[in-house]
């Protein structure tokens, strides 16, 4: 799809490693039998240490496919293929906790958490915890957080009462974006089918707007949510742009009325939350460039009857993104990210 760029027991969750900011120490955990820590970011570089599965490390920054690690007073490198984010949950212990753009009380306020909110953090810099907000890193003061005990984090499982529509973009006579021998209609269908399998394994009832290579109009896709009694609608696409340098991941919701028909999705706030969950988890799963959550008036969003989002997984006009999308393993990561975002949404609603 063409789109312009634009002392308590602490509960821990593992997600694939996201992009790390050099100014912060991000907690990561070894996700392999063992992992070599090397002097330089190369498999031919000298091995400084070998650490076992489950070891928690502090990552400083990312260089290509390597993460710079602070280890016992040394700077070493580890392949990010074998590392995952180490997430810690906290409860907000203030009337309102500001979410800031940078780790400073003078930084711009992006939003806030209410008292009692359970939040996930994935690192710390000074007295600030790192959180994901609107798909990007943000910061909250650790002074107003208390660790969450296991008894307070019972998650709502998905059930067959949770009805989800997955919408593989394009199809049939409409191939969508194309590049490097790939067609969007084929990739979106593959990712959607994988996500369907994963969501059903979590207990949900899942419908596809198409399960074969056929054309379905945008209006028919939007109307399908009402037809099957869906709770949410997730449209899956790949992006494209005139410049081959454009790349990454975007997720859209409909937050304003369309200038032509004056329509707007009836659930803009919930749609934005769903978009934020999916952007964050898919970003973590795929390591694609994070282009953030945005508002658009696509027909499948504004004419829908339930919270709805459209996720653009990579650019077929970009050689790197296309090389990833060619592989079944990356498509599976994309499906996992979408699934995790949906599960997070249903845990809240």
UniProtKB/TrEMBL annotation:
Family annotation (InterPro entries): MurNAc-LAA_cat, N-acetylmuramoyl_amidase_3, SH3-like_bac-type
A GO molecular function held by the record: N-acetylmuramoyl-L-alanine amidase activity
UniProt KW keywords: Cell wall biogenesis/degradation, Hydrolase, Signal
Example of a GO cellular component annotation carried by this entry: outer membrane-bounded periplasmic space
Signal sequence coordinates: 1-24
GO biological process: cell wall organization; peptidoglycan catabolic process
SUPFAM superfamilies, A to Z: Zn-dependent exopeptidases
Bilayer-crossing regions: none
Domain SH3b per the UniProt entry, residue ranges: 25-87
Protein name (record): SH3b domain-containing protein
Taxonomic source organism: Peribacillus deserti
